UniProtKB/TrEMBL annotation:
GO terms for cellular component: cytosol. InterPro entries: Aromatic_CoA_ox/epox, Ferritin-like, Ferritin-like_SF, PaaA, PaaA_PaaC. It comes from Actinokineospora auranticolor. GO terms for molecular function: phenylacetyl-CoA 1,2-epoxidase activity. This is Ring-1,2-phenylacetyl-CoA epoxidase subunit PaaA. GO terms for biological process: phenylacetate catabolic process. PANTHER family: 1,2-PHENYLACETYL-COA EPOXIDASE, SUBUNIT A (PTHR30458:SF2), PHENYLACETIC ACID DEGRADATION PROTEIN PAA (PTHR30458). It comes from the Bacteria. It holds the Pfam family PaaA_PaaC.
Length: 309
């Protein structure tokens, strides 16, 4: 009882819960699930864009894209490490990902058809990720909050490089401008889905807000993203594929059309355009890396026995 009261006090005072502190089992398991899903998303998210590294149109674009994709690997690492502070086993988390028992963000199950997709992913997908992650810098679990501070700094570079790429393409030929608009048309709705189901159907939101794991509801963050993106689209010279997108003076926000939730659930449940391909690729990469894990373990064992001797 005392421990629980202390935990509640720490959370209510906006202090951080640290790995050695007592915490409710539900808090721990909710965090492990959320952080693991987040880590998996970073790692799977390397694939759609990694696909374009060898086909980048210039040395400069290649260097930028390489740096961005490597950042995502780093984000995955910080997050798996944060999950380990809660007692999760990293090998087990990977196993859950490649066996399909744990999810990752459904956005990465869509294909990247042209190089304009690299720009639109940076602008919209990393942009939506920033909206989700900035409030997580103040989440109640210390290691998660601290990882997010670093991640968010890198995410803003990701968004800038995407927007800058699109600006360049929009200043190019008609064909280039068409590629950008086509990519925007394909990524806009899936980006809105990144904030998760509507509040009325989001089962975990209330408890997570109480524990201050979550700071804003899905719909609040989605609205913030829409409001932020519309002026950026105007400046860029593209439109979003939504005839109902219009400024509402009374609300002080943009209204927007109904999201296709049937599509969202279909992709979440594994039936998106690239789900099978993404997981198969990750499984193959894990198997290909087995020798590295074995070598690292053998090296550690050797160093250990030397130290003992
Ligand atoms: Fe990331
Ligand atoms: Fe990113």
């Amino acid at each position: 009882m005392d421990l629980e009261r202390e935990f509640d006090r720490v959370v209510a005072a906006d202090h951080r819960v640290e790995p050695r502190d007592w915490m409710p089992d539900g808090y721990r398991s909710t965090l492990i699930r959320q952080i693991a899903q987040h880590a998996h998303s970073e790692i799977i998210g390397m694939q759609p864009e990694g696909n374009w590294i060898s086909r980048a149109p210039s040395l400069r674009r290649k260097a930028i894209l390489l740096a961005k994709v490597q950042d995502e690997a780093g984000h995955g690492l910080y997050l798996y490490a944060a999950a380990e502070t809660l007692g999760a086993d990293r090998a087990e988390l990977t196993e859950k990902l490649i066996s399909g028992r744990q999810k990752y963000s459904s956005i990465f199950n869509y294909p990247t058809l042209t190089f304009a997709d690299v720009g639109v992913i940076g602008w919209l997908v990393d942009g939506a990720a920033i909206c989700n992650q900035v409030p997580l810098c103040r989440t109640s679990y210390g290691p998660y909050a601290r990882a997010m501070i670093r991640v968010c700094k890198e995410e803003s570079f990701h968004q800038r490089q995407g927007y800058e790429l699109l600006m360049t393409m929009m200043g190019g030929t008609k064909q280039q401008r068409d590629l950008v608009q086509d990519a925007v048309n394909r990524w806009w709705w899936p980006s809105l889905m990144m904030f998760g189901p509507p509040d009325a159907e989001s089962s975990n939101t209330e408890q997570s807000m109480h524990w201050r794991i979550k700071r804003h509801t899905n719909d609040e963050l989605r609205q913030r993203f829409v409001d932020m993106s519309v002026p950026q689209a105007v400046k860029l010279g593209v439109t979003f594929p939504d005839p109902k997108l219009v400024w509402n003076d009374e609300r002080g926000h943009y209204d927007f059309g109904e999201i296709d939730w049937a599509e969202f659930w279909r992709v979440v449940k594994g039936d998106g355009p690239c789900n099978a391909q993404r997981v198969a690729h990750r499984r193959q990469a894990h198997e290909d890396g087995a020798w590295v894990r074995e070598a690292a373990a053998a090296y550690a064992a050797k160093k250990n026995s030397e130290a003992v001797a």
